[in-house]
Backbone:
């Protein structure tokens, strides 16, 4: 799986997801049956020839993300300290929102860079996502300038928006104290081709989604309930719509506090978070084990983010 790549949920004018939920139920989603299926969302690089320099490109990108261009473009760190002025939550959410409008059955959408055409459309009108996308533009330009000037990189090789959008999510998680670079950034494949038009972002789930609709949404797109729980742990980072209410006690720190908040039914979380507890034995077991052990959560989050992420 990948955070990053599913279809379904329809955010309607009220911020709900009722329409999509109804469609999934009509399609006969059976949570228990689907939960038994193996999870496979294979990643197919758009440009296999680029493969030899992928890791090198990712290191160039990593350096750019860390420091930006001091004085001109901010980085995840400033003077060696985590730069909480960059929208850390927005950057992680952006990874999800580029990949989220994925339709497994149709093989369309996904992590394809289309987010840059979707910033005027709810739910991507969120200020943090827009700021995050602006930063990604600037980092991408810096990365591509560095690649163009580097004799080790074949002429014409560039990084796509789609790759930048996925890599930055992983880089933010590492910077905020989550899984290590070796766990989550290094295994991320690149080579995604950029879409030239928007995906249908009306498919993104809203915070008010019910358990049945949420579980069906992820399961029908090839994710396990354990992956749904792990990926939801992204709400460890960041702020709610008002941009001041943190979702967990430490919104700039990626740890496993989120899962204790889920068990306690913390009101700063969304319905989509709270329903991960008390609805299914498998999701309950995942929430409990992630709450008990940060390392178990980090491995599960990294694994769910790293395999897959296939685009268009
Ligand atoms: C499971 C279904 C999910 C739902 C229903 C959901 C919904 C939401 C909503 C409604 C917000 C607040 C937006 C706002 O107030 O403007 C939010 C914030 C956020 N989401 Fe999710 N989300 C989900 C999964 C994910 C995943 C898989 C990731 C990344 C891996 C993610 C990352 C984030 C982050 C980091 C924020 C904070 C953004 C900030 O600080 O600006 N979410 N999410």
Residues:
């Amino acid at each position: 799986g990948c955070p990053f790549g599913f279809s379904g949920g329809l955010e309607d004018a009220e911020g709900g997801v009722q329409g999509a939920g109804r469609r999934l139920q009509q399609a006969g989603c059976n949570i228990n049956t689907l939960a038994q299926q193996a999870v496979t969302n294979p990643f197919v690089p758009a440009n296999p020839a680029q493969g030899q320099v992928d890791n090198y490109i990712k290191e160039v990108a990593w350096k750019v993300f860390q420091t930006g261009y001091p004085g001109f473009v901010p980085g995840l760190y400033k003077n060696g300290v985590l730069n909480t002025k960059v929208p850390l939550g927005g950057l992680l959410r952006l990874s999800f929102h580029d990949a989220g409008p994925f339709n497994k059955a149709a093989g369309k959408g996904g992590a394809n860079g289309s987010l840059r055409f979707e910033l005027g459309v709810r739910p991507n009108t969120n200020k943090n996502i827009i700021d995050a996308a602006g930063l990604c533009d600037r980092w991408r330009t810096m990365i591509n300038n560095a690649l163009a000037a580097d004799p080790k990189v074949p002429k014409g090789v560039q990084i796509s928006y789609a790759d930048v959008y996925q890599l930055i999510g992983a880089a933010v998680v590492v910077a905020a104290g989550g899984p290590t670079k070796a766990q989550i950034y290094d295994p991320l494949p690149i080579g995604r081709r950029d879409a030239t038009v928007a995906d249908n972002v009306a498919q993104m789930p809203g915070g008010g989604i019910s358990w049945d609709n949420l579980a069906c949404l992820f399961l029908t797109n090839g994710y396990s309930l354990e992956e749904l729980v792990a990926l939801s742990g992204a709400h460890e980072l960041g702020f709610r719509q008002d941009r001041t209410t943190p979702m967990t006690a430490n919104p700039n720190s990626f740890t496993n506090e989120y899962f204790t908040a889920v068990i306690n039914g913390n009101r700063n979380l969304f319905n989509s978070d709270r329903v991960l507890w008390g609805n299914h034995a498998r999701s309950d077991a995942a929430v409990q084990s992630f709450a008990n052990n940060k390392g178990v959560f980090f491995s599960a989050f990294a694994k769910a983010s790293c395999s897959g992420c296939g685009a268009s």
Remarks:
- Strands lie at 77-78, 81-82, 102-103, 108-109.
- The pocket of protoporphyrin IX containing FE is lined by residues 3, 87, 89-90, 92-93, 96, 126, 128, 205-207, 209, 231-232, 234-235, 237-241, 270, 272 (CB under 6 Å).
- The chain has one domain: 18-306.
